[in-house]
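In response to the reviewer comment on reproducibility (Comment 2.3), we provide here a single inverse folding case reported in full, input and output, so that an independent group could reproduce the run without further information from us. The structure tokens appear first.
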């Protein structure tokens, strides 16, 4: 009897143990599924650069951090992408002994932490570990060698001139800032050499040149240089700089940047790297380095304009809008940038009319808008076919410009184009010809004027000569190629016209005017099936206007000669 009871108890305990084990297995399976699901959601958000959303899922799947090789790296990128650089550094330190922490950007963060604490011995240790990654990608070696040079500079107060020009302009930029740090006599000339470089746009470095001049309290020289800054063609930072100097807001320069501040120098370097990655359409890495740059010098928030663009290009409009809130009303040029970009987002998320209404309402609230703002608002009106309003603002812009400058010529060109659109041909020709007096032979102005004459069947032979001159300057410009091809069409040299138009179609296959023109030429060459193919294609294109569609339909029915 006793044996039977013991046997029953044994079987019961065994069953309970098995059931309990099975229950735990099921719980563990459910537990893993939940974490994997959150991790998968984190990766989806990460790839879309929705960093705040990604972080939420990364945090809720953190037990997987040691099980998935790429988890920590993507988690760190999301932290930095959300502006949580300090937390990213702490996380790297926490998992430093784990193999998943062995990636280039982790070493960057640990190096920054050491440099912030002026722990140069540890900085040397961290930079030596980065050496193993220098051939990992396009820019890792540049980052590694430049940071190594900066560590030597900060520690020894000397510039290492070994391989000083190894990376061309990048090396020259680093050299300028390092000389600025040591306050050498070469500093100003190095910045000026960058600004005046023949290849590329390095006008940004005019800000740092002016900052150095103002640091020496040479306000008169700064004002003289500022007066020569073109208010239209220069970028945001330089036009904003001009505004600060003209309003004698010199303290702004001291607040924003100092060559003596090691974090500021590193911030500018990482901003440069962010630009390089953005140019290669690697927006994740670009934003990573931008946030490091902002972390090191948050007062220079203007650099975030690049991140606004990065997010906009990738369709992350909400992130773009959030960053725009950083831009302040008193920094008028950057505030205008904020208005324009917000308008572009509205156009993407809603429609063009609402975008224009938003920008127009904001523009009306600006007191004494600057030359750049007037010019760009005129461009916006022109793009939306509000030609009378565009003409008024171009006229206001011209009143503020020197008559002998390229910007004056450019504004005449744009006003002339607006006159042409509303068929005020006399005013249009006058503006375009005056523009060419200031900048003789400009290929784009020449092309516009000559094409306008072709459209009016006016001065065809002269227009053809002008277009040949424009074409010789810009042989790969599809609009100029189309224009010269159309000129040959009008003088009935259809074979020659076809040679040009086929090039234009290859470059701009979705342009309705180019396709229409090529169809006309094919028809006159008695290639009627091909002609109808291109005309039909015009009807499918988004940019085809209603008037053109009507004409195309007539040509499809009757051909050219019976329109």
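Designed residues, in position order:
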């Amino acid at each position: 009897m006793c044996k039977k009871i013991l046997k029953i108890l044994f079987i019961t305990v065994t069953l309970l143990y098995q059931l309990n084990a099975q229950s735990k297995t099921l719980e563990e399976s459910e537990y893993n599924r939940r974490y994997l699901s959150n991790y998968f959601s984190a990766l989806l958000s990460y790839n879309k650069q929705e960093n705040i959303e990604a972080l939420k899922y990364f945090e809720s799947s953190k037990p997987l951090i040691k099980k998935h090789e790429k988890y920590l790296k993507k988690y760190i990128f999301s932290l930095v992408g959300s502006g949580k650089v300090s937390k990213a550094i702490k996380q790297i330190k926490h998992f430093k002994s784990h193999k998943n922490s062995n990636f280039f950007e982790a070493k960057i963060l640990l190096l920054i932490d050491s440099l912030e604490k002026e722990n140069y011995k540890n900085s040397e240790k961290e930079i030596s570990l980065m050496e193993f990654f220098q051939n990992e990608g396009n820019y890792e070696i540049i980052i590694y060698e430049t940071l190594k040079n900066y560590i030597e500079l900060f520690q020894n107060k000397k510039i290492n001139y070994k391989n000083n020009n190894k990376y061309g302009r990048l090396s020259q930029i680093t050299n300028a800032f390092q000389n600025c740090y040591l306050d050498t006599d070469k500093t100003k000339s190095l910045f000026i050499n960058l600004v005046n470089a023949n290849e590329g746009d390095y006008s940004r470095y005019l800000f740092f040149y002016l900052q150095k001049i103002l640091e020496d309290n040479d306000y008169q020289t700064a004002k003289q240089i500022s007066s020569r800054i073109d208010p239209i063609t220069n970028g945001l930072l330089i036009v904003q700089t001009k505004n600060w100097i003209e309003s004698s807001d010199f303290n702004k320069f001291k607040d924003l940047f100092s060559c003596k501040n090691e974090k500021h120098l590193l911030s500018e370097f990482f901003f440069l790297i962010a630009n390089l990655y953005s140019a290669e359409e690697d927006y994740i890495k670009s934003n990573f380095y931008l946030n490091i740059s902002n972390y090191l010098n948050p007062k220079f928030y203007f650099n975030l304009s690049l991140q606004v663009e990065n997010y906009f290009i990738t369709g992350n409009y909400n992130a773009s809008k959030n960053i725009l809130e950083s831009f302040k009303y008193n920094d008028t040029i950057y505030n205008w940038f904020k208005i324009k970009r917000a308008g572009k987002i509205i156009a993407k998320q809603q429609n063009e009319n609402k975008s224009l209404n938003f920008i127009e309402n904001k523009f009306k609230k600006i007191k004494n808008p600057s030359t750049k703002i007037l010019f760009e608002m005129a461009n916006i009106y022109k793009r939306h076919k509000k030609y009378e309003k565009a003409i008024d603002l171009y006229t206001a812009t011209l009143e503020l410009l020197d008559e002998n400058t390229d910007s004056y010529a450019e504004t005449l060109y744009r006003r002339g184009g607006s006159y042409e659109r509303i068929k005020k041909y006399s005013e249009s020709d006058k503006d375009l010809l005056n523009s060419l007096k200031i900048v003789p032979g400009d290929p784009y102005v020449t092309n516009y004027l000559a094409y306008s004459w072709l459209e009016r069947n006016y001065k065809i032979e002269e227009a053809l000569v002008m277009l040949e001159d424009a074409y010789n300057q810009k042989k790969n410009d599809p609009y100029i190629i189309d224009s010269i091809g159309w000129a040959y069409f009008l003088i009935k040299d259809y074979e020659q016209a076809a040679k040009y138009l086929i090039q234009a179609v290859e470059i701009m296959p979705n342009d309705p005017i180019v396709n229409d023109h090529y169809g006309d030429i094919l028809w006159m060459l008695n290639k009627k099936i091909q002609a109808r193919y291109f005309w039909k294609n015009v009807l499918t294109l988004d940019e085809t206007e209603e008037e053109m569609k009507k004409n195309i339909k007539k040509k499809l029915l009757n051909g050219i000669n019976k329109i």
